[in-house]
Every structure is written in C-alpha cells, then in structure tokens.
Amino acid sequence: MRLLVTGAAGFIGSHFVRERVRDHPEDTVVALDALTYAGTEATLADVRDRITFVHADIADAEGVLREHDVDVVVNFAAESHNSLAVLDPGRFFRTNVLGTHALLEAARQVGVARFHHISTCEVYGDLALDAERAFTEESPYRPRTPYNASKAGADHAVRAYHETFGLPVTITNCANNYGSHQFPEKVLPLFTTHALDGRPLPVYASKDNRREWIHVRDHVRAIDAVLDRGRIGETYHVGTGVEASVERIADLVLDELGLPSSLKHEVPDRPGHDRRYLLDSTRIRRELGWEPLVGFEEGVCDTVRWYAEHRDWWEPLRDRSPVVEGAWARS
Ligand code: NAD
What we know:
The chain is of the alpha/beta class. It contains twelve helices and twelve strands.
C-alpha cells in the first residue's frame, strides 16, 4: 500500500505509523501533519528514516496525494481536546469539518482506493451513569460539545462522499485511548506529569463520570483489521467494555508512583462535560475477529512508567497547551 497518514505526529497517528512500518515493511508511508501545538516530529523520531514526513494542513493535501501516488488515506488529523473546544470552538470546525471535507474532495479527485476516517465514541452524546445499553453503530448522533459536534460533522461528510460520489470509505469510532506519546493535556498524561512533578492532579468535580478505555496499540490493530478486511461504506466501533472513572485513573497513577491521594485536587467541570460513553463493539469482533489484548491496569501502569522514563519527550510540550483545566470558571 502507498499510505497517506494525516495527524501522524500526534498520539494515535504516530502509533499507527510506527506499527505499520514494522508490520508492513513493503508499504510506503507518507506522514502528514500541520504540527499544531499538539503535534511534534519528535514523536516520529524512531521511524523517521522509514517514512516521508510532510508538514502541511489536511486542507492542502491534493498535491501530496498526487506526488506520492497514494492509494490509501488514513485520516487521524483533528483538533482533539474537548477542553480547548470550550475556549476556541472555531478551530475545531475548521479542521475537523472543513479540513476533512477538503481531504475527501482531494481523495475523490485523485481516485484513492480507500479513505479510512478515525472517529470517536463521543459523536453519540453521553449515557446516564446507570444506563444499561451501549452505543451501537446505528445509534443516533447527539453530540453535546463543539469537539463532538465537529467530529460528527466529519463523519457525516465521509458518509456523504461514499453515498453521493462512491468514494470507498470506512470509519472507526473508538473509545478513550491511552498509551505512550499522548500529549500531556489529556487526562492520563496530565495526571502522570503533574504527579511526577509533585503538583496537584486536577480532578473534575463530577469525578464519577466514566470513560471506556482502550490501549492505543489495540486501537491501531483494529484500524489495520478494517483496512485489511473491513467492508466498504461500513462503520466499526472499537471498544473494550472496560470503564473507569476519572478518579480511578488518578488513583492508579498515584498508586503506581507511590504518592498520596491528597494530591487529588477538585476543579470545576468543563461546560457540557459528558457523563459516560460506552460502545457496543460486537460488529468488529464478529466480522473481523478483532479483540483487545492489553489489560487495563497493566496498560495504565506501563504508560505511567513510560512518562516517568521519558521526561525528554513531554517536558518541552507541557507548556504548549493553550488551555488550563478550569479556565472557563475564571472567564
Ligand atoms: P492528537 O491531538 O494527539 O493528534 C492530532 C494531530 O493532528 C496532531 O499532531 C496535530 O498537529 C494534527 N493536526 C491538527 N490539525 C491539523 C490539520 N488541520 N492538518 C494536519 N494535521 C493537523 O490527537 P489523537 O488523540 O492522536 O487523535 C487522533 C484522532 O483520533 C482524532 O481524529 C481524534 O478525534 C480521534 N480519536 C481520539 C481518541 C482519543 O482518546 N485520543 C479516541 C477516539 C478517536
């Protein structure tokens, strides 16, 4: 395959690139990223000699597709931080909706064999904490935040390009990822880097709100399965069924580092904070034989240790985040 991987200098995109070049040495990988505050080439340092890196916006990718004769696009590029979307929603709609549209149009003009789009469980809105059901691929979209709404808009555009123009698309909607190389604004690295510096961990007031957690390597394996065997036009949920509250994440981090629970510090919820997401991932398990392999506690503890051992990666990034948790309460 000749792949264009967008958002490749970010968390999940970089893991996808790393595993792809290891498991498919015959592939050509063009890694494209606009290098926003959330992306850094340092994340791709270990595979730099195996890929072509292009510093560009997804809205300007047609020339790249032509120059490298790309046949498969995997679109990770996005503004991805819900908290930033409260303070600056416009940039989310620009990249996630209009940027995805521009990339779809470029893919249509060039005539790629596959456009795979990375989406999220968050497009469905939230579940009550005691709800017995999970979201299926047929659940209605009910996004509640600018990030969720912009990802929902992108999904609709991807499906429209399939139905209207016959673009061969697939979509995966995934649960909350964790693992190495995640920008230190997201909850697990945020807690871990704060704890490593002896700073308080900012835990939202509604600390029982839960997320479904998946190790990033299991997510990447699911994308590979969909690229290899997924049905064109289909959507696949990628989830583990393993749920944990934000407070539980804080407790695991503090336990692993041998630090006291007094480091937990309550901060106001961000507006529109979703209570819970849970995906029914029966389709990908039954049709494609995928299942998660990384145990939750083992994966979280490995990740905490990775941050403890890689200050050189996260220290230069820490102060690049444009948002401080709880900033909305002061505005
Ligand atoms: P990330 O913020 O770590 O990475 C996003 C990357 O996209 C960054 O490197 C950034 O520089 C790049 N980017 C942003 N705007 C761009 C643009 N206009 N053109 C080109 N590149 C641009 O995010 P992530 O956690 O790796 O998420 C990747 C994808 O997976 C996103 O689409 C996100 O919505 C989706 N997703 C994430 C999770 C999760 O838990 N992190 C869960 C489900 C789905």
